[in-house]
Design brief:
429 residues; alpha+beta; eight-stranded mixed beta sheet; four-stranded antiparallel beta sheet
């Protein structure tokens, strides 16, 4: 089963059309033997399937009465249309009789032996009386997992949006004799317990394909992890995603929890250049009729880290930046911000001016009121000097008026004539 995710970015669709060629070319660079299907013509005369279940784990026995399934699969719809089962004998032998072959139908034999269920497609088998299914004991340790090769290439750049499309081909091996399976029932399970790969910061549109048995892709903080069982032997993983970049490129710190025998980084020649602290530059390489700048290295130990810098990447033209700015509708937010700031400025000025005018008005009223009280004091003094007011009444009224002036001065000090507390002149006898 291959796990697939749809890539929405249009530029990546072209990459997938070239994926087969690209993977083969890359494999040639490293002298890898990629998985190849050699489909044999089914022998329609065969009506019986006979085989044996064996153990690929040293000193392990095949469980007695192991269940073996025979699945009939519609090749057009890729659906199981029929199913039969049998049990192995004491020697691990199984047999299906009266198998009726039909056009457009493939038969698959599956050993139902636990988490990992090895299978054989009968259309790849010439002799239906000599089918072999290999089962393995399970392990939760990743110590036997190694990366034979890690190839990362950037074939396409969207300069307008400053996005780089990345395609990686990873060849890994389980060098042990047990199938690795994660304990998904363990409540303490973390990404460290899974097959994991880190990706550049900000990646999007992740798609993963593999030759491994069925499993799931899990998002982790630094990239993704896989729950797929890993049986002994080799397998290939294909990864694609989009990375945004700022300025003229981006940096990627590649983490190697399982080490790597060989690593190669490729960047389209017209898209810039690559440098690294642990990878050396090589001659440019032609892949799918395109020239790529390359760096590579060998024999990396487990948990080693490699810093890769991609620089000189294409930039959008001024017209593209303006167009992208308008298409993103960011200008709406800018205009809203400008209008909002203008309104706030106008409102603040209006409030300030209103408060200032109100203060001036209040000060004028206080000043006028103060002068009125001072005039009342002067009039009271004049009446007292003319013997028109009793002294006790005069002093009482005058103190009341002075207190009012003092209250006005304390509330809003004004530079006005100060009312002194000079002793009143007594009328001449």
């Amino acid at each position: 089963m291959i796990i697939r995710q749809v890539i929405s970015h249009q530029s990546l669709l072209a990459w997938w059309s070239r994926l087969g060629i690209t993977a083969i070319v890359i494999a040639i660079f490293f002298t890898f033997d990629l998985y190849r299907l050699g489909i044999a013509d089914a022998q329609t005369s065969q009506t019986e399937i006979t085989g044996r279940v064996i153990s690929g784990t040293r000193d392990a026995d095949v469980p007695a009465n192991t269940e073996v399934l025979l699945l009939a699969i519609d090749l057009v719809n890729n659906q199981i249309i029929d199913e039969a089962s049998t049990l192995t004998d004491e020697n691990g032998i199984f047999q299906f009789k009266n198998v009726v072959h039909k056009p457009g139908v493939n038969f698959r034999v599956v050993a139902n032996s636990g988490t990992h269920t090895p299978s054989v497609d009968m259309q790849l088998v010439e002799n239906w009386q000599d089918v072999e299914l290999t089962i393995y004991e399970e392990t939760g340790s990743l110590e036997q997992i190694i990366i034979d090769s890690y190839v990362l290439m950037i074939p396409t750049i969207n300069a307008r949006e400053r996005q780089a499309g990345v395609l990686s081909v990873i060849n890994l091996s389980n060098t042990g004799d047990r199938v690795w399976t994660p304990d998904l029932k363990n409540p303490n399970l973390t990404g460290l317990d899974l097959l994991r790969f880190n990706l550049p910061l900000g990646y999007t549109n992740l798609s993963v394909e593999s030759e491994l048995p069925p499993g799931n892709i899990l998002d982790i903080a630094t990239g993704f992890a896989m729950t797929n069982p890993i049986p002994p032997g080799d397998a290939t993983i294909l990864i694609s995603y989009i990375v945004p970049y700022e300025g003229d490129g981006f940096d990627f710190i590649l983490k190697l929890p399982y080490g790597a025998t060989q690593i190669r980084m490729l960047l389209a020649d017209e898209a810039g250049f690559i440098s690294s602290d642990k990878l050396d530059a090589t001659e440019p390489i032609t892949v799918a009729d395109s020239l790529f700048n390359a760096i590579q290295g060998r024999d990396f130990i487990a948990d080693e880290r490699i810093t890769i810098s991609f620089r000189g990447m294409p930039q959008p033209t001024p017209l593209q930046e303006i167009s992208e700015f308008l298409n993103s509708r960011s200008y709406v937010y800018v205009l809203v911000g400008i209008v909002g700031l203008t309104l706030i400025t106008i409102l603040a000025y209006a409030i300030f001016r209103s408060q200032r005018q109100a203060k001036i008005h209040r000060d004028k009223l206080k000043k006028d009121r103060r002068m009125e009280i001072i005039k009342e004091i002067a009039t009271l003094d004049e009446e007292y000097e003319n013997h028109n007011t009793d002294e006790i009444e005069y002093q009482k009224h005058r103190n009341e008026l002075k207190q009012k002036v003092t209250a006005i001065d304390e509330a809003s000090p004004l530079r006005l004539p100060i009312v002194t507390d000079e002793s009143s002149k007594k009328p001449e006898q």
